[in-house]
Every structure is written in C-alpha cells, then in structure tokens.
Structure prediction request, 332 residues.
Amino acid sequence: MRVFVTALDEGSLASAGRRLNRSPAAVTRAIAALESHVGVQLLHRTTRRLQLTEAGEPYAAACRRVLTDLEEADLAVAGTRAAPRGVLTVTAPVMFGTRVLRPIVGEFLKAYPAMQVRYLLLNRMTNLLDEGIDVALRIAPLQESNLIAVRIGEVRRVLCASPKYLADRPPIASLSDLAQHDVIGIEPTSPDDIWSFPPVAGGRIPRTVRVKPRLMVNTDEAAVSAAVDGEGIVRIFSYKVQHEVSAGSLVVLLPEDEPPPVPVHLVTSLDRMSLAKVRTFMDFAAVRLRADFDRVSPHPADQRSCREPLDAKILRRRVLPNQDAAPSSGSP
Prediction:
C-alpha cells in the first residue's frame, strides 16, 4: 500500500523505487501483488506516467487515509505525538502558493527538521479527506461544515493597467470608460465578457460593463505579464499583482468601485487539528500570513478581524472543504 501511494506521488515506478530505496522491479512486484490482492487493476502504466484506473481512484484515497492513521498511531505509541514530525500535506492555489505561502513553507521546514511537506499547488477544488490533505489555503467566503478555518486576511478583485498603457489612452474616471479600452481576458472567458461591480451607494442593482478582450490567456501569470507590457486592462485578485503594483509597473484603477474583499483562510479537519504537525503548521503559517497581509493591505482597518487569537477563531468558525473563490477573473 505504501509503495502504491509513493508511486502515485512520484509519478513513476523508478522514482518511487529511489524514494523507497527499492529496485524498479521490486516496486513493480509490490504493486502487482496489491492488485492481485484486491482483484482489480489499480494503475495504467505507460513509459511516461502512471494513471489511476476507475477502481484505483477511490482505493488510492482510502490508502492515503489508512497510511496517515498508521503514521499517527506509530507516533502516539512512541510517545512523540507532541513533537511535530512526519509528512504534512498542504495545498494552495498556484499563484498564491508560489508567491506568498511557499517561502513560509520553507521557513517551517528549517524550523522543524523532523518534518517533510508534500506541497500541492492546484487551481481546482480539493477534497481534504479523499486526497489526504492536512491543510488547505482557501480564497473564498466559506460555508459552515465540520472543518476548522483560521482567517488570515482578505484579497481584493482589482482592475490594473500599466502606466505606459494609460499614458496613450483616454482617461478612466468611471466604469463606463472601460468600454473604450483594451482588455486582457483570463480563460474561462468569452469574446464578449461582462464584468459585474457593486451597486452605487444606496442602490440594490449591481452595475455591469460589457468588455471585449483583445487578448485572452489561460494563466494568471500571462495576464499579469501582458498588462505590464501595456497590452490592456486586467481584472485579477490583488495578491497576484502585489509585486507589480509595489514596483509601479501596474496601477490600480477605480478602487472605489471594487467588489467587497474576499476572505482568505487556512482550513483543516477537526480530527487533523489534534495532530502536532498540523497544529504547529497552522500556528506557524497563520502568524506569518497575517503579517504579510497587514504589510501590504491598503486598508489596514480591514485586517482587524484577522488578529484574534488562533484558539478563539477556531472555536467559532467551521467551513466546507471544497469552496474555492469563484473564478470570475482567473483562478484563485
């Protein structure tokens, strides 16, 4: 079972063998024995990759849960449950995970030499239980469930353009002016896209602007790069352009018309929170993420609710495992 999961994590039998200090032949035999035991094929094997069969998908999820439980049982029997050790699986959206959370994961590994981190950057919804995830970072309003959430900040959905683009184009004083400008679209989008904005003060009907992207891209990185190069206006989460705005290569437009900020949480399950490795990482990452949000936030007062003690926040808020931010302008 451990060989099977390691092969999935590593992506090949040879890589699994190196990690487990076994020969590729021994790995192949172990997986064949497992398939013989359960009576079904679990993996499609090609020269380039491994792919789960239909029967293999739920079995892999069950194997991850079993192995995690065994690891924690070993630690408990050994009397080392209070010390963070073992493998911690963390997931986050790709750009946030690369720009913001990844350095914190590095600090965590330096601070706790007995820890290993399996770091998954995914722009899709994940199921913590089925995919063996200990901690997830979510950018979204979260609904009630049996998971624990620790709020660490919030992000804005902003309009940005480069100074060189704005220098040669009509001024932008209101939302209606956007129709005269080039727009960079982030898939999924369409040649005719509609951007929605909050109602005017005292109103109830959201305002909309129909835009026609001249450039459509499928990654946030490409959209930001194109905006910096003067290709047009992009609408994107604020953390994705934090560096560019700070450096002056992008300018935030019409901030008074932005939608309400979107909360950011670290989430875990109630049973995982009792584990030393999970609790330690949640404490470690939350402090640093809050400090980062406080440092870059243009509205410091908006961050007050994120400074409560960790325990108090945990007792009050529980959330769903699969709620990422709606991708109205690119992935979370």
Observations:
- The first helix runs from residue 2 to 10.
